Amino acid sequence: MLKTDFKTYLKDKNLNLYKDKIEKIKNIFNTGGKMLDWYYIDKCISPKEIDSIKNISQNIQKNCDLFIVIGIGGSFLGAKAIISALTPYFSKNKPEIVFAGNSLSEEYLQELIKYMDDKEVIINVISKSGNTLEPSIAFDIIYEKMKIKYSNDELKKRIIVTTDPKEGILRELANKNDYLTFDIPTQIGGRYSVLTTVGLLPIAVAGFDIEKLLLGAKQVNVDEAFRYAIIRDILYKEHKIVELFTFYEPKLEYFIEWLKQLFGETQGKNKLGILPSSSNNTRDLHSLGQFYQEGTPIIFETIIGINKKGKLKNNLYTHFVEDINMIALKQVAFAHLDAGVESNLIIIDKLDELHLGMLIYFFEIAAAVGGYLLDVNPFDQPGVTAYKKLIEIELKK
Ligand code: PA5
Question: Which CATH superfamily is 2-31+219-383 part of?
């Protein structure tokens, strides 16, 4: 179950004012507008693609030590978020999954190339456009290394391209060399693509149940996601311009990074939008807690909690460690509320595929609704395009 609490840590909000706006937005969703295929979970991925991902991921698990996922932004964060959330803290998975192409760190690439030396490697390059700077450079370098390590025939089993169904340089390369490919649905943008081939192949390779993720998404109460979107909008109009995604389980760190991209790129345009930020608690309470409590009053929080029952005893308190964590979550929210920092609370029963699927879809809906409430296009990112162009101009001089 995904439960929400939009009362305990919030002051009263009048949601009725949004009735007409919400009707209109629901209409856009239900008539299936442009870039809205993610809303229809069955359009994210077909049963045939699910089977193919399941087969191929088993094959990958058997035939490599190192699986390199190359991509950035929406072509990286979703898979990283789910794999990090579900992988035990101290484990050595086979195959080891590493990510590349999400920075321009030469050091990272040099170390990775060396690391590939004594390993059987399979790579999955993911890019909808096929020409994003960081993954293009990473792919170029890793591909060169693969060509040294493996024959052309072997490369056909070791290079997997996830890209636009028809166009782009990666699609051309894959067609020319007969590499295995997966399509990224045309009507789904990067930050809404975790439940497509983009996120699901790496997640399946990591050994997680992709069908449970999809099932979780289907169980979301859409109206509740709309309610959260309205509350965010009301808080924004009350000049709370920073949303702190607060979490008490560090395994959620990358899930929150995914959330930051989802909300930041969806809403931050036309000089509008809530700035998504994050707080990894209780760690950050000891560095930023003072600001939250008494700093410039521009913050509201959305707390993501997990309703786990503690088992681990300690000699200091009668409570188990996990129960202390939950007490901290609640008491900190009360302390913040006393200081005027309001919080939404979203609680899942368990950190597993089903509940992560619920969180993904819940937040995707809320982000898109938030975009419509600001009257911006939730699915473009003109600012990203602007800086990409300037880098290109400089590189071509
Ligand atoms: O949400 C988005 O559309 C972006 O973050 C993209 O995912 C990111 O820029 C990577 O683009 P591409 O998949 O074309 O390489």
Answer: Glucose-6-phosphate isomerase like protein; domain 1 (3.40.50.10490)
Q: Fill in the amino acid letter for 120.
A: E
Write down the domain spans for the chain: 2-31+219-383, 37-212
Residues in contact with 394: Cβ distance below 8 Å, sequence separation at least 6, in sequence order: none
**CATH number for the domain whose boundaries are 37-212:** 3.40.50.10490
Choice among 134, 265, 301, 353 that is catalytic = 265
Question: In a mutational test of the pocket of ligand 1, which residue from 76, 129, 262, 269 has the highest number of ligand atoms less than 8 Å from its CB?
Answer: 129
The pLDDT value given to residue 93? 80
Please tell me the distance between residue 99's alpha carbon and the centre of ligand 1 in angstroms.
Answer: 15
**CA dist list (Å): 309 to 312, 326, 396:** 10, 9, 57
Question: Does residue 144 carry a catalytic annotation?
Answer: no
Residues 347 and 359: beta-carbon distance below 8 Å: no
> What contacts 175, CB < 8 A, 6 or more positions away?
none
**pTM (predicted TM-score):** 0.96
Average pLDDT per consecutive 10 residues, the chain (397 residues; last block may be shorter): 97 95 95 91 97 97 96 97 97 91 98 98 97 96 98 97 96 97 96 98 98 98 97 98 98 98 97 98 96 96 95 97 97 97 98 98 98 96 85 90
Task: Give the pair of three-digit tokens for residue 27.
Answer: 């209409």
Q: Which of 38, 69, 75, 363 to mutate to test the pocket of ligand 1 (most atoms within 8 A of CB)?
A: 75
Q: Is 271 a catalytic residue?
A: no
